[in-house]
Design brief:
812 residues, alpha+beta, 11-stranded antiparallel β-sheet, 8-stranded parallel β-sheet, 24% strand, globular
Length: 812
């Protein structure tokens, strides 16, 4: 009879045997387990890829256009039924992967390495895409990156094995690249600190010589390249296991993968291309920074004649293959820069595109791209092409903003790291394309079409039938004298209401007209106002009755009168202004309060010795627009001037409820739209989203020195505005006032602006706005009369190309 202790031992042995069998089968099951992709990703060979023969098939058609799709290569073609002209997403001889791709992704991985992926090489060529027919078009899903392949990138290889591998590499270029990726450390020659670090990473190095990676945080793209070179030599999983005995697996070795859905549909006479950001998938730590869309759609074949019409400033043209391929890239942000992303050093004046458009124009056809959603964080890029790569113009969407920050006290003093925008825009990136036939592809035709798209039925042509003389009166400004450049001195008056009226009466008596007058800095804090407190006339500049009488006079004499406020910035706030930094200020991407500083003119560095202005958050901007409008409405026919709302557009990167630029645009537009129809509005700058609602825009360049890679500046913006919105260049007394300046303004149908002060013996050199140092009315009266005479002689004039510097309107 067995003892109880023996029975217990036998039971334990049986249990261990059962468990060992279970673990054995579990291990086998793990080895046999098929890798499951994250939801939404596509496996290789989902679609059979082939570039051997073009095989376009019609996937959508209407009375205007035909959309065809070549599925095995994921390429599109649009046919214009007016004349049979064709526009393809790829040229007949694409030079590189970028030219074969419908889009390109620029991203950063977990190790702060930057890289690119292309829809062609990283998705289509792998068969990792899928097509679905939808109403009026096609949806194509693209999975970019290596979703299943393991990467062989050993951090260390024994000296003998490394040299044997090197001999097996057939390509001399690959040999060099592989050899440069590793180095053979000599522990006798390195510092003690480096020696300790190496032995900690590679313990066997003390006994055996090892080749180790030259770069600790190796980008995934380089890991893949090393893996490719090794696999070509016959390197196997067994080899990898041997080499991995010398070191640990590289961190972040998993492949970065993205999934993007693209929709292409026919919407009446337009092709609409859209990428919804809320459908985009990011896997294994990759973060998309930008998406370049349809880079080669409509691009010219080698030798074709034509030009791109580009939106920098007033506009410019770049001829195809103009020989300027080495003159620097053309890239301009739509709606300018974002002050919530600070720039510590401003070497160049930021370029700006007021219109979210780009055009490819041939001698017998043309295509315009209109960025209709996501344009507030988009840029327009262009390149004239060369003998080895095609000319191209396209939008780049900076979907995730980034800034550098620094850690203090590190070994080298400072260490940089990247700060990324946390939340992406929840809408889509959308571009609409319209196609012109041979009978309507002149620059004037293209400008007319875009004007009809922008203004619709809201504004008919010839609402503004003559160029204006614009007069801006400066009321008050803070004097900096004796303040050691710290600002905040005494508020000094430069033009009273009575002086402004006297000058305007004199101008009307002299026959000046049509005339628009803007009162700037007439609020309680002059030019450095705080918009969180609604406008109230500064009592040192006049009484309520004086202003009301001036309003009645301008109304009787057909003079347009505006009061200016700046709803985006608080310049000298206090508690009495109802201003709260935490409540009203945007956050910078660096998670600091949104303070904006001027730049030193000599060093171009941000000058933090000056008092900052505060960047107001979008809800505060919208509220300030509405409240200031209500305050100004009491003056009957006085219009609202919104200062630089046509130039600037800022994000708010606060953590709880961040607001990106696209949503800022929508918030501001909604506020302005609520005023439209009840009160006349004007602004500086001409950002497209505000143009349907304003009557005049000022300080808009008629012509500027173009990028080196373009051929000439053209007044395309003015051709769009002409007859619908009044416009002028920078003020005459802030310009060169040269013959070219005057002639180009007149040729573009522009008016002339003057900044004036009524006090004859006061200069603004020592104020917070020294740029207005020459503004006395008596100094500029004769020039105003002369410019008005030129405009009267010219009469109403459509914007033209007469007198422009070089070239013609068709790129010939």
């Amino acid at each position: 009879m067995e003892k109880k202790g023996d029975l217990l031992v036998k039971k334990i042995i049986r249990l261990l045997l059962v468990l060992s069998v279970i673990f054995l089968f579990a291990g086998c099951a793990k080895e046999e387990e098929v890798q499951v992709l994250p939801e939404g990703l596509l496996e290789p060979n989902t679609t059979a890829f082939s570039e051997s023969d073009e095989a376009y098939k019609v996937v959508a058609e209407n009375e205007f256009l035909t959309l065809s799709y070549w599925e095995s290569a994921a390429q599109f073609m649009v046919s214009n039924k007016k004349d049979g002209s064709v526009f393809k997403t790829v040229t007949s001889e694409p030079a590189v992967n970028a030219e074969k791709s419908l889009f390109e992704i620029y991203y950063v991985d977990e190790k702060n390495n930057f890289a690119r992926m292309y829809s062609h090489s990283d998705s289509v060529a792998r068969g990792q895409y899928q097509t679905e027919l939808i109403e009026n078009g096609v949806k194509v899903g693209f999975t970019l990156g290596e979703v299943t392949q393991d990467v062989f990138c050993p951090p260390a290889i024994s000296k003998d094995r490394f040299e044997a591998i090197l001999e097996k590499i057939e390509s001399s270029f690959d040999q060099i690249r592989f050899k440069q990726s590793y180095f053979l450390p000599d522990l006798e020659k390195v510092s003690e600190e480096k020696k300790v670090s190496l032995l900690k990473q590679y313990p066997t190095l003390e006994a055996d010589p090892l080749y180790v990676l030259t770069q600790e945080n190796l980008p995934s793209s380089m890991q893949k390249e090393i893996s490719r070179i090794l696999e070509a030599t016959g390197y196997t999983e067994e080899d990898y296991e041997i080499d991995m005995q010398n070191a640990q697996e590289l961190k972040g070795g998993k492949n970065v993968v993205f999934h993007v859905n693209m929709y292409m549909t026919l919407e009446e006479d337009q092709l609409q291309v859209s990428i919804p950001l809320d459908e985009m998938i990011e896997v294994n730590g990759g973060k998309v920074l930008s998406i370049s869309l349809l880079k080669n759609f409509g691009s010219p074949e080698y030798g074709e004649v034509g030009q791109f019409i580009l939106p920098d400033g007033s506009g410019s043209t770049m001829k195809f293959y103009n020989g300027k391929e080495n003159s620097g890239a053309f890239r301009v942000p739509i709606y300018g820069s974002d002050k919530a992303i600070p720039v510590e050093e401003q070497i160049f004046t930021p370029e700006q595109a007021y219109l979210p458009i780009f055009t490819t124009q041939y001698t017998d056809r043309a295509m315009i791209g209109i960025v209709s959603d996501g344009e507030a964080f988009a840029e327009i890029h262009a390149w004239p092409g060369s003998d080895i790569a095609h000319a191209t113009a396209y939008p780049v969407f900076n979907v995730r903003q980034m800034a550098k920050a620094f850690l203090q006290g590190t070994q080298n003093g400072t260490e940089a790291f990247n700060l990324l925008q946390k939340k992406l825009y929840d809408g889509a990136l959308t571009v609409k394309y319209y196609f012109f036939d041979r009978n309507e592809c002149e620059v004037a035709d293209i400008a007319s079409y875009y004007a009809s798209e922008l203004f619709g039925q809201e504004k008919q042509e010839l609402e503004v039938n003559k160029p204006y003389i614009y007069v801006e009166f400066i009321g008050a400004a803070y004097n900096k004298e004796g303040e050691f450049s710290l600002g905040g001195g005494q508020l000094e008056t430069f033009t009273t209401v009575a002086q402004a009226r006297s000058i305007v009466e004199d101008l009307v008596k002299e026959g000046i007209g049509p005339l628009a007058v803007k009162l700037i800095g007439f609020g309680q804090k002059g030019l450095d106002g705080v918009p969180t407190k609604a406008f109230k006339l500064n009592k040192d500049l006049g009484t309520q009755k004086e202003l009301e009488a001036f309003v009645e006079w301008t109304k009787a004499n057909n003079v347009a009168l505006y009061i200016d406020v700046d709803p985006q910035y608080a310049y000298n706030p206090s508690l009495l202004d109802g201003f709260s930094k935490s409540k009203h200020t945007s956050y910078l991407i660096t998670n600091e309060y949104g303070e904006s500083y001027p730049y030193w003119p000599n060093t171009l560095q941000m000058n933090k010795l000056e008092k900052p202005s505060y960047i107001l958050n979008p809800p505060t901007v919208a509220k300030s627009i509405c409240e200031n409008n209500e305050a100004i409405k009491q003056y009957d026919t006085v219009g609202l001037s919104l200062s630089g709302i046509g130039n600037n557009l800022n994000s708010d990167f606060q953590k709880k409820v961040p607001i990106d630029r696209e949503n800022t645009k929508k918030i501001v537009e909604e506020a302005i739209k609520g005023i439209y129809g009840n009160q006349s509005m004007t602004t500086n700058g001409a950002n497209a989203f505000i143009l349907p609602y304003v009557d005049h825009v000022m300080r808009v360049p008629v012509l500027k020195e173009p990028f080196d890679s373009v051929d000439q500046a053209i007044p395309f913006l003015q051709m769009v505005l002409n007859g619908r919105v009044g416009y002028s260049d920078i003020p005459v007394n802030l310009s060169s006032n040269s013959e070219d300046f005057v002639r180009e303004s007149i040729d573009a149908g522009a008016g002339f602006t003057y900044v004036l002060t009524g006090e004859p013996n006061k200069s603004m050199r020592k104020t917070t706005h020294p740029e207005y140092y020459s503004t006395q009315y008596e100094t500029w009266k004769s020039d105003i009369l002369e410019k008005n005479q030129l405009l009267q002689e010219q009469g109403y004039k459509q914007a033209t190309f007469q007198g422009l510097r070089g070239g013609d309107s068709n790129g010939k």
